[in-house]
Design brief:
It catalyses: Endonucleolytic cleavage to 5'-phosphomonoester. Its cofactor is Mg(2+); Mn(2+). Its main location: cytoplasm. The protein has a 5-stranded mixed sheet with strand order 3-2-1-4-5. β1 and β2 form a beta hairpin. The termini are far apart. The chain folds into 2 domains: about 90 residues; about 190 residues, Nucleotidyltransferase, domain 5 (2-Layer Sandwich), CATH 3.30.420. The protein is an alpha/beta fold.
Amino acid sequence: MGDIEKREFIASDYTIKELKEYVSSRLVEIESSHQADRPADLPILADEVDQLIEALKADSRKGASRLAESLEKKQLAASIDLKAWDKREEMVARLRDQGYQYICGIDEAGRGPMAGPVAVGAVILPAETYIAGLDDSKKLSAAKRESLTSEIREKAVSSAVALIDNETIDEVNIGQAVRLAARSAISKLDREPDYLLLDGGLKLDSVDLPQQAVIDGDAKVNAIAAASVLAKVTRDNLMDKYHQEYPEYNFLSNKGYGTAEHMAALEEAGPTPIHRRSFI
């Protein structure tokens, strides 16, 4: 397949199998070369994929046509994702116009479960970045959240997650526990934020920073969405470990939430050391 890259790409010169291999490898190369680029630079990627599509469309074979159609669908999905990213950057862009530089998104995971800690993520994203596929963690599969975690940590100016255990939740109540976790996450950041964007109705009166609560913030602000992913992945992974200690509660599946199976296990075996007694 090396000959394809040395001269003009004419799809009809190659078998469908060769075309599939080439298109797959070129997509990996193109996406990798632009992975760290800002959204404004991504039309370069689109242009390169467009060239592949046009070459495939010039081939009359059905296999080539199907490849072209598949690429067009991927292009459309990428375009929609980029527009969604830009939309979620609007609030942060307005704050940057006001002079704020290190705008931190904050979100929690695990407010409602009957067992395990609550987690809060804090993420500061740079202005010139793009994380493909980022969204509210609740809308993403577990595999997608895991794959995004390393990219979020790599591209963030700074990121952190803090956990507050079930005993503290019982002692101070879940609302106060979330605030404790949020303050802890902020304190763990390598870069001090100059503005906070908090998901939902969360307010940190004890933190002397300008801040704003954003209803459904994990769907409206990229930094909050990133924080939601880190918080959920961190907590879910911990609950998976607890499943090894207490398999009868199936924390691997329910993550501590009160499913019928979980409730039945509680009825039969009673609470574990990680259960929130105030939630039972």
